[in-house]
Every structure is written in structure tokens, then in C-alpha cells.
Amino acid sequence: MASTPTPSHPARNWRIALVVAIALALAFGGWGLWRVLSPASTDIRAQLADSEAAREQLQSEHEELQQRVATLGRSDQISREANRELQGTLAERDEEIAGLRADVAFYERLVGATAQRHGLSVHALAMQSQSVQARDGTAWHFKTTLTQNLNRGAVSAGQLTLEVEGTNGGKLQTLDWDALRQQPDSDGVAYSFKYFQQVEGDVFLPEGFSPVRVTVHLEPRSGAAIEHSFTWAEATGAAGSAATELE
Predict the structure, then answer these.
(1) Of 62, 94, 138, 190, which one's alpha carbon is 20 to 30 angstroms from that of 46?
(2) What is the pLDDT of residues 118-151, one digit of tens each?
(3) Structural domain total, the chain
(4) Are 108 and 134 in a shared domain?
(5) What are the start-end ranges of the H helices in the chain?
């Protein structure tokens, strides 16, 4: 009876290795499937989803807060601008009230029941430099207030001229009306009023001339001439108060 041949050792070893490899593959596959389908894996996926949702919510809240900050900043800027405009308006109103009070005081002194009687006189003079150059000189705008309450209801009329004293090149010099107007035989500025009037015009001072005193001359249609002098510092320093006294 013939015997069954015995497999060689290399073939048998190969088969054993193949069986072991298949068993290991099945084991690892089963372990991976268990990890995927296990409750712990489900919890991790849920945590990841929750984390993503939380991140999106935080991002949305952050953007909303940024928008609120921008809105509040703009609102604060608008409030500041409105406050500055209000402060400016209040300052203007205060100036107007001060001017009106000065007007009332002036009118009371001039026409009030207890006002002292004065004939034609120069109440105030203001000189203000202009940014105008003419014939090597500088233009100055003058504004003078004339008053009278001696003859109530009577009209005072005439002409007004100026004269300025000063120095030029270290020498005393007086500029009459023609020189100040830079034209010969220049007419004075006409005035006509019952109680008061502001008379204004322009004169020109030559280059290098340093004024010291300015005199207002009044030539009424009837009666004696009247003049009143102001130092140049008084005339230029009174520009603000005199300009607002009757405006």
C-alpha cells in the first residue's frame, strides 16, 4: 500500500503565515469597526459638532459686539458734534444778549427820562485795519457814533472828517482829510439824525507812518464846528466794543 506524500516544510510555513496574516487583518478590522460604532466615538463626533456650533455662535456674537461698538462710537461722535454746535449757538446768543443789553443801556443814557442833555457830540470811534494796499499805504475803516439829545426831535446834519497825527521817519506829521482820502478837495462823510447815528468810511495811511492820535471834526449845517480827539490806542482798542454797541 502506497503512503501519502508529506508536504514540504516551506509550503507548510507559507500557509501558516497566510492564516496568521488573515487573522490579524480580521482582528484589526473588527477593532476599527468597534471604534467607529462604539458609543465613545459617537460622543466625540457630537463634541466636535457642539464645538463647531459654539465656535460659530461666538463668531456671530463677536461680529455683533463689533457692530455695537461701531454704532456706539458713531453715536458718541454725533453727540459730541451736536454738543459743540450747541455750545457755539449758546455763545452766539450770549453775545447777542450782551449787545442788546448794551443797546438798552445806551438808549437809556441817551433818551431816558433821567438822561443828561448833551448837544452834538462824538460818542465813540473805532479804527480797523483792512487788508487793502493803495498808493503805498494801508486802508483803515473807521466807524464813529454821533449823538445829541439836547434838542429832542430836531435833526442834526452836516459833514464829518478825520485828521490823524503821528510820525514818519522820526518827524511829526499831520494828515488832513484830503491826505487820508488820497484825493484833493475830498468831501466829508454826510450825517443826518435826531438822536444818534453811526458814520463810517475808509481812510489810507502812507507807508512808514506811525499814528498817535485821531481827531473827528464835525461841520454842522448850523452852529459851531465840533471836534473830539482819541488816542490811536483808544481808537483801535475800542473796535470790538464800539462795533457791537449799536449793532
Answers:
(1) 62
(2) 788 998 999 999 876 556 678 999 999 998 877 7
(3) 2
(4) no
(5) 9-37, 39-111, 177-181, 232-237, 239-245
